[in-house]
Amino acid sequence: MRKNILIVFGTRPEIIKLAPLILSLKESPLRDNFIVASTSQHEDLLDEQLNYWKITPDYFLTLSPYKGNLVRLLSHTISGLQDIVEQIATIEYVIVQGDTNTALACSMIAFLNQTKLIHIEAGLRSFDLKNPFPEEFNRIVASRAAHFHFTPTETSKTNLLNEGVTSSKIMVVGNTVIDALNYTKKNGQNITANNPSTVLITLHRRENTHTNYLILIEVVNDLANQHPDLNFVWITHPNCSEKIRSAIGVSNNIEIQEHLPYPQFISLYDSAKMVVTDSGGVSEEGIHLGLPIIIFRETTERTEAITENYPMIVSLEKDKIISFFNSNLNRVNTIQYSYGDGNASQKIVNWLCSEIDPVDYDTLIIGGGPAGTGILLKVLKDGTSDSFFNKRVALIENSSFLIKGNITQYKVNSDTFSDVFLECLEGA
Q1: Which of 80, 182, 378, 423 could pair covalently with 342 via S-S, beta carbons 3.0-4.6 A apart?
Q2: Distance between CA 173 and CA 167 in Å, rounded?
Q3: What is the average per-residue pLDDT within 133-161?
Q4: Those residues with Cβ within 8 angstroms of residue 394's Cβ, 6 or more apart along the chain or in another chain
Q5: SS3 291
Q6: Which residues are catalytic?
Q7: By the 8 A CB rule, do 122 and 151 touch?
């Protein structure tokens, strides 16, 4: 079987969001058509995820010595991916998720090698090229290079339409992170059932790990003093763990933890009363579970829940955050919103199957207008409609792209059939 699909990830969130797709592909007719590559962008966080999802990449890129330099990291990633593309000449599709350095590298690899980029979680926009940096740039490039776009919401689809992407190249499927969340909630073990009510906190974005984290530390310290009955659990990212630990101070109800295995992290939601985060995936999970959300950012590309009046705030201002927290801590949330129905991965697999291995149709294509009508009238007049209609019949006007699949037998009318139409009229 030819390996014509290359799936690439490099960060922990990418694995979480692509793992349900890979698992679905393993159960599909394309189970032997794809290979998986890791760019090792989050090499210190990958093993736990790969073990949990039981995914073994076919290729690992060597670790980059330039993680602090985006340009050199990009160059290193592109070079490694190009080696894979040259080694496997049958690759036709490159599947990538989101807006990371890996996504940018895959966009360039696919475009320059004239392969088809499939972009998952497409169409998110903050409309500020420098915020988030460089993610907004990365996803815009991916959209320009993509052959097909799987968007999580109608809003993200509209963003792409406004940028000139053809509607037929977009499918709204929801976000695969909901697939991952549902899978883990169903198969995981509850390890926090006896824990007190918690406030779950995460922080990882580049723009927040320089100085903004100090604002959040002030917020958490103040809220911990105001609410001694709550347990503030801050799950740190390797890129800012030491900074937070050295600045947070000592408190009986503030708990700093290193990154957790995914099932253990998901179990924290069971006792959570509020989520504070700058993560897109964590905010999507929390909103799906109905938890009030504080987005610790200046702006967000996930605006849908806000427009639905979901209890959330996007802010870096201490007073606004504390006010929102106290107003919503014990308020019953009656607004439900979700970024997916848990079936996004299967929808993507179904599309891939139809795209890569289309059904062969024995089809008679008939144009619209007088000529096409004439053909239909003639077979009815001649009594040959039984043999005529044992084929699939497609009546079209100017939109032949509506025909999906390989047409093995066909007839296409033209204006030369006008005499048939006239003959039918004369004999009517």
Answers
A1: 182
A2: 14
A3: 97
A4: 363, 364, 365, 366, 402, 403
A5: coil
A6: 99, 121, 135, 204, 206, 237
A7: yes
Q: Rounded CA gap, 221 and 217, in Å?
A: 6
How far apart are alpha carbons 13 and 46 in whole angstroms? 10
Whose tokens are 């499918």? That residue is: 171
Helix (H, G, I), strand (E, B) or coil at 407: strand
DSSP string, 115-148: -EEEEES-----S-TTSSTTHHHHHHHHHHHEEE
Question: CA-to-CA distance for 247 and 212, rounded, in angstroms?
Answer: 12
From 203-217, 308-322, 354-368, the region with the lowest mean pLDDT: 354-368
Distance CA 54, CA 161 (A): 37
The owner of tokens 């039981």 is 54
Please give the Cα distance from 210 to 136 (Å, whole number): 19
Number of residues assigned to the chain: 428
Query: What is the mean predicted confidence (pLDDT) over 331-353?
Result: 92
- Check residue 382 and give left, alpha or beta (phi > 0: left; psi -120 to 50: alpha): alpha
Backbone CA torsion sign across 272, 278, 280, 281: negative
Question: For residue range 157-167, what is the model confidence (pLDDT) as tens digits?
Answer: 999 999 999 99
Q: Is 347 helix (H, G, I), strand (E, B) or coil?
A: helix
- Tokens representing 166? 């053809």
CB 159 within 8 A of CB 123: yes
Q: Residue 142 in contact with residue 99, Cβ under 8 Å? A: yes
- At 339, phi and psi to the nearest 5? -90, 20
Residue 59 and residue 29 in contact, taking contact as beta carbons nearer than 8 Å: no
- The C-alpha atoms of residue 303 and residue 324 are separated, in whole angstroms, by 17
**What is the radius of gyration, based on Cα positions, of the chain?**
26
Cα distance between residue 235 and residue 421, in whole Å: 74
Predicted confidence at residue 15, as pLDDT, reads 96
